[in-house]
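User: Hello! My lab partner asked me to get a predicted holo structure for this protein. The small molecule is magnesium ion, SMILES included with the sequence. Please write out the structure tokens.
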Amino acid sequence: MVTESTTTGADILDNLFAGKGGDGPHLVITSGKGGVGKTTVSILVADALARKGWRVIVVSLDQAKHLQEYLGLSETNRAYRVDRGLWALQFDLEREAERFTQEYVMLLQQIMPGLKALNLEKYAEVVRNSPGFEEEIYLRYLESLYSKREYDYIVVDTPPTGITLRILGLPGNYVFWLERLSELRERIVSSRYVISKALGERREVRDPVLDKLRELRKRYGRLKQLLSSPRDTSYVIVATPEPLPVFEARKTLEQLRRLDATVRLIAANKVLPSDKARLLGVHEVQQRSLEEIEKLPCPGDCQRIAIMATEEPPHSLTGARRLLERVASLQEVLKA
Ligand SMILES: Nc1ncnc2c1ncn2[C@@H]1O[C@H](COP(=O)(O)OP(=O)(O)OP(=O)(O)O)[C@@H](O)[C@H]1O
Ligand SMILES: [Mg+2]
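Assistant: Hello! Below are the structure tokens for the protein in complex with magnesium ion.
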């Protein structure tokens, strides 16, 4: 039996996921403030899973595209095998947004064949610049990941926290509005039916608009369920031991609790050894932040690790692997 004192941080990473529950891939969504090490930790977690024999892909939604740079992925939106059992993909929002807008324009052309090219362009521009458009593109992509059965685990490196939280909250908002719209439509349909009957007219009981609303309600209800089910999705929070990243981690955890999601790991990254922290005059702030990270309320049975800062930034798979020796349980680091 492994006792607590001999459990290394690498063991914790190795044993984060006991086994895959669902039929489709399990998504591991990494979140944290810009620059704290989301991409690096995503690679670490994906690599640990691949070593256990799972088929894993690390997908970065972040448009800073550091995953592409760290793993040398020449093209975006394309999966590359970077090691045995490990693939990587850099998502390109612009390309996907363009594809989606074109699809939308084609749909408009079908519905309104009279529209002139110039008008279509205007519609496309309005759609492209509408608030929430990018979040919707991200959400659709996230949804599509759940059907990628060629992978057991998909580790998702996310865009900045604000966008991520909005994306994760969208399915719940959609469900709310779709239910209200369905109720409204049901009232319209039944009133129309009563009037037609009174006038002795025949009227189709089925309503295509109501069908569509119900279909969308089902779709987003399922996605909401997938994003919060511990069988299908886990979350990883990364923060450096500084006030702002810890504050952002807390906000994210609060939102995840509201979504009833399961957090599997909280990682304090770029932790300085005490002597170095003292030398730089940040020891007190670091210590206080680490204590706060230890106390962060964690929905689900989550592990907490500390990853020490390295001299050389881990800008590659090898660099991320080197970090493994620098991983420890947060409790141990706090005790030291
Ligand atoms: N433990 C560590 N020690 C030293 N440097 C690190 C460590 N972890 C990450 N870094 C470096 O910190 C920088 C930011 O890391 P990374 O790109 O993983 O963060 P991020 O949160 O994904 O950033 P962004 O929000 O810009 O996408 C990189 O230069 C990375 O190599
Ligand atoms: Mg990143």
